Amino acid sequence: MQLAVTGASGKTGWRVVQEALARGYQVRAIVRPDSQLPEGLSGAEVLRLELGDRPALESALRGCDALVIATGARPSIDLAGPLKVDALGVRQQLQAAQAVGLQRLVLVSSLCAGRWWHPLNLFGLILVWKRLGEAWLEQSGLAVTVVRPGGLKEAEDDLASQRLRLSAADQQVDGSIPRRLVAQVCLDALENPASIGRILEITSSPTQGDQPESAQATLAAWLA
Ligand SMILES: NC(=O)c1ccc[n+]([C@@H]2O[C@H](COP(=O)([O-])OP(=O)(O)OC[C@H]3O[C@@H](n4cnc5c(N)ncnc54)[C@H](OP(=O)(O)O)[C@@H]3O)[C@@H](O)[C@H]2O)c1
Known about the structure:
The protein contains six helices and ten strands; from the N terminus they run βαββαβαβαββββαβα. The protein is an alpha/beta fold. The strands form two sheets. It has an eight-stranded mixed sheet, with helices on both faces. The protein has a two-stranded parallel ribbon with strand order 7-9. Strand 1 (2-6), helix 1 and strand 2 (26-31) form a beta-alpha-beta unit. The longest helix has 20 residues, at 81-100. The chain starts with a strand and ends with a helix. The model has no long low-confidence stretch (mean pLDDT 97). The structure holds NADP nicotinamide-adenine-dinucleotide phosphate.
């Protein structure tokens, strides 16, 4: 498996790269020209480009079996950021994928994507633009899985005790999940064809007693 990951310098993106390397994938980590590289990218081929540079993006995706999109507008005073990254940036990526014959994509989106009335929309209507990015992917004819996580957490210490809560679109409105688990679910979804054409909303919480079922098994059972 040759996997491309965009937004690979981000806190979810580098974990997707790291998890993919651990699963034996070859990974192209796609970052911006000025992105700071996290340590988690070591072992991946790093490619620096702007999403709007179509020849460079196509060249980066050519020969890849799949793409995980982990780009997302960083908080800033530029309220057009979410439009540019979460909608138009996703479209740039899907068009480049189509151009090079890359069929399989997983998008890291967000719980509540598509909602107009939500505090997160104070940042440039981000949830509206995220839904537009999702919709363009759904209409692209590509084999797409949309993963919508809840609030993202850096903590990884209680990962083994996390029980995954998985639902279809527009079922969950709050909750959180460690970024590491999101990265794992993205790859589990990639490896499970039953996830194609689905929106997966994911949050998690620690169990008090027994070891929970693995996220991979939870996903497989849910998709069956
Ligand atoms: N934060 C949350 O609680 C939360 C909850 C649900 C969903 N999400 C979504 O989950 C995804 C991952 O979130 P995260 O917090 O792990 O990400 P993050 O650390 O903020 O990383 C964002 C990534 O997107 C890249 N990016 C930003 N603007 C770009 C542009 N114009 N062109 C190309 N790349 C660009 C960044 O590159 P640079 O390193 O160069 O800036 C970085 O690699 C995002 O889509 C986010 O909106 C977040």
